[in-house]
Amino acid sequence: MNLPEPIQHFMAKQIERLAAPLCIEYDSLFCLVAYDGPAARYGLEHLTLGEILPPGLDFLQGMDMGEPLSLSFVTLPTGAIAHIELRQAEQRRFILLFDASEQHRLVQAQQQQANEVRLLSSRQQRTLDQLSRANAAIEAQRNELEQQRNELAALNQAQARYIAMMSHEFRTPLNAILGYTDLLQRQDDPLAKAAQRHHLAAIRRSAWHLSSMVENVLEQARLGRDQVSLTQEPAEPSELVMLLNDLFQSQAKERDIQLQIECDENTPDRVMLDIVRIRQIAINLIGNALRYTSQGSVHARFSYASERLILVVQDTGPGIPEADRERIFRAYERGESAPGGGAGLGLSICRQLAQLMGGNLELLQQTNNKEYPGACFQFVVPAPIPDEQPLTPISGRVLVLDDDPDLREWLDIVLSEWGLQPTLLSGIGELKQWLREQQNETQHKHPITDLPITDLFITDYLLEDGVGVEAMQMVRRLDPDIPVVMLTGSVPSEESVRVNQNPNFLLLAKPISASALRISLGKMLAAQQQYTANV
Amino acid sequence: MLGNFAVGKSSLVRRFVTGVFDASYQTTVGVKIDTCEVTIDAASSQDNSSTEATKVKMVLWDLAGEAELGPQSQMYIQGMQGYLLVADGSRMDTVHNAVHIQQQVVRSLGPRPFIMLLNKHDLSEQWQVPDSWIQQQRDLGWNILCTSALSGEAVPEAFDRLARAMIAPTAMEMLG
Ligand SMILES: Nc1nc2c(ncn2[C@@H]2O[C@H](COP(=O)(O)OP(=O)(O)OP(=O)(O)O)[C@@H](O)[C@H]2O)c(=O)[nH]1
Ligand SMILES: [Mg+2]
């Protein structure tokens, strides 16, 4: 466009006014060749031709000038703000400066606002994150508390119901025991033998009933703490049937209920079982059946299939309503239709025990008999056939330490029967005394004999004046190889379970079965003799 | 001075050059040029032959912060001989931005000596950089300082180290 001279002049003036261009030419050594424009505007008052670039521009020294370079919004050390262009043309180098202060002000305000907003929102986001994390934690804690509270309330309720039931349950057999004992004491007439037998049977029944309830309570506590330790030992199902008949027949007769407890012919004579637990479960199942049946019959039948012992208990009671079929297996619960007492723990414990032993306890489908629907429970438990050698005769001296005179007497009888020579002691005090005597004797009579003080040591776990472990240590201090059998009525502690791994040590739970004791003693004494023979 | 916005680049320069700190935020537009002189005493100088203290004059280019180097910043870094890579230790994202910026520099200029500064170390409650992260970068050869323009912590040291690295960059400090 060919502009008239006044317009050109005007435009040049405007550009000068708005952009204040300053043009500086310099050589390859950064020395000033010439300049044109308002140098003072950029704080560059002292531009001297032939001299090196002044302090305000010396930052450009060393810049590679091969390429044109545009630097916008440069705040110079002088404080001036410029757009700077570095250009080369016709072998000459130029620095062009344009005033950018006004534009800088505007952009600064914009950028300031934008950055502050970004900072704020990132800070806000962080606060929100923290808040939501805190909220989530609080929420989780509240849910947990709420759940704990509900569980506690439910448990409390169930426990209160349970305690009320239990106290009634405990009192009934206790009354019977006390009553019949009174009667027996008053019976001077030697002809009253038959009556005595009847009273004794009643006492025995009540005692068993009490004992099984106590077992139930203890077992529940153990299950709750995962402390159940199961054993497997040879046992005779027919013996169990006999015991159950003993316990329940007279009660059934009194109530005019036909009770049949039997064992299929295919059941082996001896199988491996945790007999204490199996007995507990059978007593619970048959006891329940009798309790819930007011007329008709109860039929309990043991059978055996694929290495499993099966017990089916069928009654002609009211049956279990559909709604209760699962509930009856929960702790402290029992069917609504339960007549009178009955500790709800029974079925829940039985099922837990059955499952722990690798078996199960189920309620089978009801029959269609409307009049006597009845309930039918099936209990199944693995019961392998033991590979047993016939019992070898045993002999030796046995030291017995127990504070219960009855148990001491019983052990005296059975141990003597088996051909052993028992020495009976009642507590730690007596044991100390006895050990001292043994030592004196050894020193005086046979100073060099190697004979152990005893061949085997049987001690109660909890004594009136100490604990069995202490007694065991005292005996083993004199002779570290003596086999020890510890009898315990309490929940085995972790410590005792640990020592149980030792072949020279056996923990036997009360009530003690004579046959189990006999087998264990046989093994331990044989191992001991083998050991001393080798030494 | 490279790094995202508001990490404290200008504050570090101001603290070093004039010894003051300003809590108010004035964002930098474009680039602000400053000069300073760092004296490296002979005893600790890498150049063992010189017995005198060495004076290093540095021209500081304090750039406007960005998450990554834009076209304008690419212009500003032409001729750059070393840099302080600044991040805000209370904003972990700015730390990741710094790592990215370092890679951009290597791509456009090749390796240049740099020191990484995790600034605002005084904000210990809001500190977000795990020690494990710092260790991991140091294992890669990075020279890292925790600084505070507010308290002055490690600020002279930052410029001192950079000056040394620019005079006689070790392989580590050139790392890229
Ligand atoms: N607490 C604390 N605040 C700091 C520190 N350094 C800088 N600040 C604050 O952080 C904000 C940003 O600081 P500047 O130095 O402007 O940050 P910048 O990196 O130059 O920011 P741009 O120029 O936008 O890229 C200001 O409010 C400073 O006061 C520090 O070490 N500690
Ligand atoms: Mg800044």
Description:
The complex is a heterodimer of chains A (535) and B (176). By secondary structure, chain A is of the alpha/beta class. Chain A folds into three domains: 5-99, 2-Layer Sandwich (Beta-Lactamase), CATH 3.30.450; 230-382, Heat Shock Protein 90; 396-534, Response regulator (Rossmann fold, 3-Layer(aba) Sandwich), CATH 3.40.50. Chain A has helices spanning 5-19, 101-186, 193-224, 237-254, 275-292, 345-356, 405-417, 428-444, 468-478, 494-499, 514-534, and strands spanning 22-26, 32-36, 69-75, 81-89, 92-99, 233-235, 258-263, 271-273, 297-305, 308-315, 360-363, 376-382, 396-401, 420-425, 456-460, 462-463, 466-467, 484-488, 505-509. In chain A, the strands form five sheets. In chain A, strands 2-1-5-4-3 form a five-stranded antiparallel sheet, with helices on one face. A five-stranded mixed sheet of chain A has the order 7-9-10-12-11. In chain A, a hairpin with a 2-residue loop joins strand 4 (81-89) and strand 5 (92-99). Chain A is elongated, with a radius of gyration of 49 Å. Residues 335-344 and 493-499 of chain A have low confidence and may be disordered. Chain B is of the alpha/beta class and 176 residues long. Chain B has one domain: Rossmann fold, CATH 3.40.50. Chain B contains five helices and five strands, in the order αββαβαβαβα. In chain B, the strands form two sheets. In chain B, strands 3-4-5 form a three-stranded parallel sheet, with helices on both faces. In chain B, strand 3, helix 3 (92-109) and strand 4 form a beta-alpha-beta unit. The model of chain B has no long low-confidence stretch (mean pLDDT 90). The chains are: A alpha/beta (535), B alpha/beta (176). Chain A binds chain B through residues 55, 58-59, 62-64, 69-77, 81, 100, 104, 107-108, 111-112, 115-116, 118-119, 122, and chain B through 5-6, 25-27, 29-35, 59, 61, 64-65, 72, 75-76, 78-79, 91, 93. The structure holds guanosine-5'-triphosphate and magnesium ion. Residues 9-10, 28, 62 of chain B line the site of magnesium ion (MG).
